[in-house]
């Protein structure tokens, strides 16, 4: 059984804390959760080990952008006008391969099936491409990420322990490459922006019309049910998950380091 939570927007630190809290408790409860959510403020999420020395803090502060660190790896994502999915389950779940890439592949298949439901034909990246920067998740697709018309659509990252698997990712409704690029200190911002425009895509560009959150939610519900062949149970955040998240949320906040 997969519990689906269509969540309200939270600030970045709470979103990351909730993803991790749910995953930790799923390891005990032996269930899976698909959480679908947005962000209260525009937020840059950094990979677990990503360095912060290239962040453009002046631009970030002037534009009221939050910065958080994900429990998962990878590079920076701008969360603004997008939907984030988070799928977590217990490590011994026989319905998800124990191999990292194979499990990534299965979740990507569920995402592709969800996109099919929206009338979008998507496929999977079979290699790891080199990006033009060290900072942007969206400047190149990695193994088994989701593409449409050869362009990266969904950027995902996975975190796994001996007890649980957590994978979350961004489904852009409309990219804001300007804000994304200017949040970092690069001199050739226009060139990077043009690279992103040519190598990425978003839902509104594909569909040529606006799309609602609930349309995406319904498609994800169908996609994950179809690929995992499990019943979907509509749920909500439980008190235990909220309390654990509140306890750990400060671990994900990233602040400017003063010299």
Comma- or semicolon-separated keywords:
259 residues; eight-stranded mixed sheet; 35% helix; three-stranded mixed sheet; BirA Bifunctional Protein, domain 2; alpha/beta; 8 helices
Secondary-structure-derived class? alpha/beta
CATH architecture: 2-Layer Sandwich
Work out the strand percent: 15-25%
Helical residue percent band: 25-40%
Largest sheet: 8 strands, mixed
Series of secondary-structure elements, N-terminal to C-terminal: EHEEHEEEHEEEEHHHHEH
Tell me the strand order in the biggest sheet.
7-8-9-10-6-2-1-11
Blueprint (SSEs and pairs):
Elements: E1 2-6, H1 12-29, E2 32-37, E3 43-46, H2 57-62, E4 66-69, E5 77-79, E6 82-90, H3 100-117, E7 123-124, E8 146-148, E9 151-160, E10 164-172, H4 177-182, H5 189-199, H6 203-207, H7 213-228, E11 232-235, H8 239-248
Parallel strand pairs: 1-2, 1-11, 3-4
Antiparallel strand pairs: 2-6, 3-5, 6-10, 7-8, 8-9, 9-10
């Amino acid at each position: 059984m997969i519990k689906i939570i269509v969540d309200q927007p939270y600030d970045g630190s709470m979103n990351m804390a909730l993803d991790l809290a749910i995953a930790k408790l799923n390891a005990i409860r032996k269930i899976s959760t698909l959480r679908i959510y947005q962000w209260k403020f525009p937020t840059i999420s950094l990979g677990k080990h990503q360095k912060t020395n290239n962040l453009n803090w002046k631009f970030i502060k002037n534009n009221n952008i939050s910065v958080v660190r994900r429990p998962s790896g990878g590079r920076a994502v701008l969360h603004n006008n997008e939907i984030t999915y988070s799928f977590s389950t217990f490590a011994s779940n026989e319905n998800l391969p124990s191999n990292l890439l194979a499990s990534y592949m299965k979740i990507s298949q569920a995402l592709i099936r969800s996109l099919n439901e929206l009338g979008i034909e998507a496929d999977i990246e079979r290699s790891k491409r080199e990006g033009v920067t060290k900072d942007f998740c969206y400047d190149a697709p990695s193994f088994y990420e989701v593409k449409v018309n050869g362009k990266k659509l969904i950027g995902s990252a996975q975190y796994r322990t001996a007890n649980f698997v957590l994978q979350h990712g961004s489904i852009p409704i409309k990219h804001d490459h300007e804000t994304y690029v200017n949040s970092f200190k690069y001199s050739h911002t226009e060139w990077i922006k043009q690279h992103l425009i040519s190598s990425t895509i978003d839902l509104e560009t594909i569909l040529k019309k606006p799309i609602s959150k609930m349309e995406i939610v319904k498609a994800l519900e169908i996609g994950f049910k179809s690929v995992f062949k499990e019943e979907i149970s509509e749920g909500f955040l439980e008190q235990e998950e909220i309390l654990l998240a509140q306890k750990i949320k400060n671990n994900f906040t990233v602040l400017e380091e003063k010299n």
